[in-house]
Specification:
Radius of gyration: 23 Å
Distance between the termini: 13 Å
Number of strands: 8
Oligomer: single chain
Helix content: 10-25%
Length: 229
Amino acid sequence: MKMKKILSILVCLFLGVNSQAQIHEIGVFLGGSNYIGDIGNTTYIAPNELAFGILYKWNRSPRHAWRISYMQSTISADDLDSKEPGRSLRGYHFENSIKELSLGLEFNFFDFNLHTFGQKITPYVSSGVNFFSYEDLYIELGETKKNNNKNSIAIPMIVGIKTNISRSLVLGAEVGARYTFTDNLDGSNPKQESFSALRFGNLNNNDWYVFSGLTLTYTFGEKPCYCPQ
């Protein structure tokens, strides 16, 4: 009987740790986007277009989670909004479509154990790798024209804060800047040699885009095992 009880406790503890390590979250992101590059203003956080998406988190511990998300938005900018005289006189503008798939790791500054009762709150950071599609643009005689669709990679740098608002819902607010591996979200640096005369701006700096908004996720997964006394 004693051995049976010990085995029962060991199995229970294993299942408890395992279930704690595998709670899931699925939800939505809603907010805005802005771009940083060779057209328009240079404010880092200035949402001017709607951004939305879905996300999934696999909480491996109260301190970290694997994170997968799909988000999309239009990004746009206008030189007339810039405080730099050269840009406002130039008067270029553009609009592009961004669709991204992100894989990353989220780290909580404080324990965020969704199996315990009571309200919890923590700042967090997240990074990983993004695969995104965009429209390859060029600007000719002040008019933005589309060439074709392209794919690229970006590195996300996300900071946020989150809290549980019920036993099953987590509300978060975050800002995520994406450093891209392209300098042509705005049409300033088309790669085709036939468009080389149309290039402008700083050709040594790649473009950024930023998603800012709220996340709302639903949590599910087994609770820890309660062992017999």
